[in-house]
Every structure is written in C-alpha cells, then in structure tokens.
Amino acid sequence: GPTNMALTINGQVRNLRLEPRVTLLDALREYLDLTGSKKGCDHGQCGACTVLVDGKRVNSCLTLAVMAQGKQITTIEGLAKGDELHPMQEAFLKHDGFQCGYCTPGQIMSGVACVSEGHAKTDDQAREWMSGNICRCGAYPNILAAVREVAG
Ligand code: FES
C-alpha cells in the first residue's frame, strides 16, 4: 500500500505518499508537477527522463521513488540559479543543441554528468557517454559541441 516518503529535489524536501512501485519519473511528473523530465520510452532506452541522483546520471523511469530517499535529486528545473542559466544550458543555446526540444532536458542533465564525471575529454568519449540520449531530430553534432565546450 501507499508509503510515506521524503525526497530531496533541487535542495527542497518534498513529502509524498505513494505506492512503492511508483517510479521517480512519475513521482516528479505526476505528483510534484516537475514536468521538465520527459517520458519518452519509460524503459531505459531514450534518456529523456535523465536526472542526477547524488550527482550521478540516472534514468528516472528505471528508478523507484522510494529508493531515492535520502539522496540529492537534481532535475532540469534545479539547474539554473535564479535568472542565471547553468553553463550547459547556455552552451545548448549557443550551439543550437535542440530542435523540437523534447529530449533536451535529458540531454542537458546527461551533459552535466558527462562533464562532471570526466567523460567529455574527447569528442569520441563524449559521444559514447551521450549515446544513451536519443534525439529524433538528429541534433547530435550541436549537442556534442555544447557538451565539449563546457568540458573546456
Ligand atoms: Fe526513461 Fe526513456 S523515459 S529512458
């Protein structure tokens, strides 16, 4: 049956009462109104649902909300600081790293992890890391350029 849980999302503790089988993605989208994380495939194939859990990239559709308790969850909504965009968001704008935009939140979260975890040192390395994030519009070269720029 429903279980009480407390999730720390973008630095804020949110209390929820959910069935233990509810995914982190559904908790964010359906119960917390954080709809930036997208549901593309709902089974770990597209990356549209990517968030950070304790700084690590996670497919939120494959993660149970209850398992994310006590961890720092960061979603696309938490990246900008007030009016100041995160450098990865700036880079996506500069390099036109999106077309329809559906995959963009996941791409950006994956890009942030790519850089912070040190997987963006070469084009090939970054391309490999980002390969779990599908873009139907084929904006891959621009996405790669954005990630590589932030990597320096
Ligand atoms: Fe999670 Fe596609 S919705 S990987």
From TrEMBL:
GO terms for molecular function: 2 iron, 2 sulfur cluster binding; metal ion binding; oxidoreductase activity, acting on the aldehyde or oxo group of donors. Keywords: 2Fe-2S, Iron, Iron-sulfur, Metal-binding, Oxidoreductase. Residues 3-79 form the 2Fe-2S ferredoxin-type domain. It comes from the Bacteria. The keyword Iron applies. The keyword Iron applies. This is 2Fe-2S iron-sulfur cluster binding domain-containing protein.
